[in-house]
Amino acid sequence: MIEKGPNFLEQIIEKDLKEGYSKEELKFRFPPEPNGYLHIGHASAIHLNFGFGKKYNAPVNLRFDDTNPTKEEQEYVDAIKEDIKWLGYEWDQELYASDYFQQLYEWAVEMIKNGDAYVDSQTSEEIAQQKGTPTQPGTNSPYRDRSVEENLRLFEAMKNGETPEGKDVLRAKIDMSSPNMLMRDPIMYRSLHKPHLRTGEEWKIYPMYDWAHGESDFIEDISHSFCTLEFLPHRELYNWFLEKIGKEGELKPKQREFARRNLSHSVVSKRKLAQLVENGIVESWDDPRMPTISGLRRRGYSPESIKNFAESIGIAKRENLIDMAHLEFCAREDLNKTSPRVMAVLDPVRVVIENYEKEEEWLETENNPEDESAGTRKIPFSKELFIEREDFREEAGRKFFRLKLGKEVRLKSAYIIKAERVDKDEVGNIMTIYCTYDPKSRSGSGTPESKRRVKGTLHWVSAKHAIPAEIRLYDRLFTVPDPEADKEKTFLDFINPDSLKVVTGFIEPSLKTAKVLERYQFQRKGYFCVDKDSTEEKLVFNRTVPLRDSWKKIDA
Question: Which residues pair with 62 in a beta bridge?
């Protein structure tokens, strides 16, 4: 692997250390909102912040920015924690913005007293209208010059739930002519009479994200607040709020932004991912077609493959679209080293070896040629087998190196067979292929025949011992690389109707005890993972990725 130099965020940290920061002052955080599941973009942010924590031996907090009780659920909190642990990271403290609601309220009261905030009684439509446009300055609210006493009284009424929901808001008093629209007296609090998942009915007002976020960083002594590029315009407001609450000489968090990495043939907006679930387009947040961390886990991606992906795409200042094929490459790189090789037939056709006279025998085969320590296992061989239907043709050209009439192939870890004739049904479908075998050609037997070269090697399963299994073959969820690029359509217009195909295949008997989330390479077919829907009566496997980048070009 090519050694990379420090990214620009790391350069910022190093510069701060040279200019007066001590390593003991470094502290980072990952601050998700518990309003959905984490996705592959969050994986990069997790890798970034926890990576800095490891590099500088600095604490990293997990803080939930839980300021919107209408969209937040305990399910999301639990899922986020599970995902981070699964990726292999440990946080220093588990914290919540709601831990600071009282402190935030007290600071807001101080801002009112200092003339830096006021209660606005306009409707949301009126506030939006008087904010102006990016090219036209806004106009002051008619309530902007309320007295401190009146503002305190109204704000306390909001807190006590005496104000009707949605009637009054608390706004920061900044500059209605600022070129930055976010600085035009932003809202700090709104009246919202909804129970909170942690504070229950205690609060009738809730802080806006921009007010709570930076102040939470400040309370936790976060040194560097790294966020995605859409928060760049928010930095000015972030710093303005910190100036109002902090004392001179105190270490204040430094917000810096990096570009979001979008993934082709997917969307990474939690709002849009929620639409996929709510509309029944996917089964759930952890549907294996989803770019969520839980979906990737269920599909069979390993933590290492996701971290390698995050490391390989790096950190940039400009957004771009990462090809899904690169994520799949990272999966193959890791799974190739760690996944046991097994045999499974997904579209079976029966093979009968007419001159095979034994009832059965157990042959030895390697578990993983990439890992000698993986050892070997025994697989059953018998007179009747299953092979892939695509691996046989009655007639074929010279470049078809699989089974055809009158020609030989080797069965993986077994014998050389020769196709002699076929049986067909009334419409011409091949039902059975009759073959003969060379009894001296068994792989590893040491006979000259065992070393005889034939051009094709096929995987197979003994019909007598085969276990039926449900195999879920996944393709891209969207038919185009960027489903959000077309302004005339919505991303839902590009759903791939063939993103999931379910087949019944046959697997070797060693998989009978396979456990949920165990990963395997099905010989010549790809990497597969045991799905959580598996039962003792029926095993279910999800295809993680094919052996190579052979997805059909649905966007061609």
Answer: 30, 94
The first and second tokens of residue 72, run together, are 């937040």
Among 435, 459, 483, where does a domain finish?
459
- Candidates 277, 229, 222; CA nearest to 246 is 222
Helix (H) or strand (E) holding 363: strand 361-366
Q: Are 333 and 322 in contact (CB under 8 A)?
A: no
Residue 331 sits in the same domain as residue 352 = no
Write the pLDDT tens digit of every residue in 370-395.
888 999 999 999 999 999 999 999 99
Looking at the structure, tell me whether residues 386 and 336 fall in a common domain. Answer: no
User: Which domain-ending residue is among 431, 459, 487?
Assistant: 459
DSSP annotation string for 443-500: TTS-SGGGG---S-EE--EETTT-EEEEEEEE--SBSSS-TT--TTS-GGGGB-TTSE
| Same domain (yes/no): 192, 289 | no
| pTM greater than 0.85 (yes/no) | yes
Phi, psi of 479 (to 5 degrees): -85, -10
For residue 137, the domain's CATH number is 3.40.50.620
Could you give the 3-state DSSP secondary structure of residue 69?
Answer: coil
Catalytic residues: 33, 260, 270
Same domain, 165 and 218: yes
175-211 tens-digit pLDDT: 999 999 999 999 999 999 999 999 999 999 999 999 9
